Amino acid sequence: MKTLFENWRKLKEQTRGPADFHYKVIDSPLKKEIQVLDLRNKQPLPGKAKGDAKIVIEKRTDVPHWQVIWSNSPEGTEGIGTIMYLMAMELAGNEGFSPDDYEQSDDALRVWAKFMPKDNIYNISKQKKEEFKYEGDENPFFFVFFKPDGGVLRQFHKQISRESVEKPVITPPEEDIRPFDPEDPEEWEFLGDLQESLGENDTKNVSKVLIFNKNDEILLLKRADRQQNWDLPGGHIQKGENFIDGAVRETKEETNLDISGLREVKTDEKDIIVKYFKANKHNGGISLDPKEHTDYKWVKIEDLDQYTIIKPMKSVIETEMKALLQEIEPYQKKVRRKHRRMKVRLIGKGKNKHNVGKKMKKPSYKRSKSAPPGAGGA
């Protein structure tokens, strides 16, 4: 049986082998990258596919092991891709390393196939994924692979440079732990801020609207008055108008957005009534009335402290944004997991040989053409 060393020696005898390159390892908690550089000037090299030669692995939140999300070996080489996979596998450590659940190529499958035999020359061990324990034993998609003893990085240590990237720390906004006290006059100071010049048909009561975009960011407007603090769309409702109709009208007047599907999330009531609504949908481009607002921003929850917002309003915004994030994240994980399993099982059945309409020139593994955003669909 050939040893791993003999296999590397054979690769080195080729025109451009592993010893002909420099390797830059960029290491971070959730993502690791190995760039293949020119040995002389340490510059990136073109890959066989579009882009630079490198391999990237990622630790996704819904799986316990690392996955390769991009691999591109240097142009005009053979066998370097395997070495790149071995290096990445070593970086993955004891957590293991597997093919990408979302996307695969024939070239990647050829590399993974080298690690499948029990007596593979790389001494790599593998373990069946729990969700595929009743599936066949020939498909690399069903396995997690673990680094061999010794390791490749040690063999090329003189050609390797490292760079560590720390995970950014996001400090959550400080919560107001003091309970709301309706008898405390300071709690109602914001009502004065809402007392804009009332029109002839305006009442004192107010509707405010929370509008989120697809990135879970909330729309804030910068007031044009002397305070110039940040506000939600909305304003005073008119006589004979209910709170929802007032919220829709005021939002249209202030932002030019058409909103619908409003749901009440909070009511503050003393001398006047302030109702907060969350809009399910919004359409149109934002256009501000300069007499009322001078700017607008889509803001993430971790950035709220950078904006001056009256305290009761900020409390409502934080509560709803936290609830939105808790609601969406498990749903997205569930949808992606179900789609991933379906796609892997389809691909595991082999190439699609049903040539409907005689339009398919070459059988393909790409059976799944649609999926939720970020879940690997075409």
Which structural category fits the helices and strands?
alpha+beta
Total helix count? 6
Physical arrangement of strands within the biggest beta sheet:
5-4-3-2-1-8
Helix fraction by DSSP (H/I, runs of at least 4): 10-25%
SSE succession: HEEEEHEHEEEHEEEEHEEEEEH
What integer is the average pLDDT?
A: 78
Largest sheet: 6 strands, mixed
What's the Cα radius of gyration? 29 Å
Q: Low-confidence parts lasting 5 or more residues at pLDDT below 50?
A: 367-378
What percent strand? 15-25%
Number of strands: 17
Instruction: State the separation between the terminal residues, measured CA to CA.
Output: 43 Å
Number of structural domains = 2
Shape summary: elongated
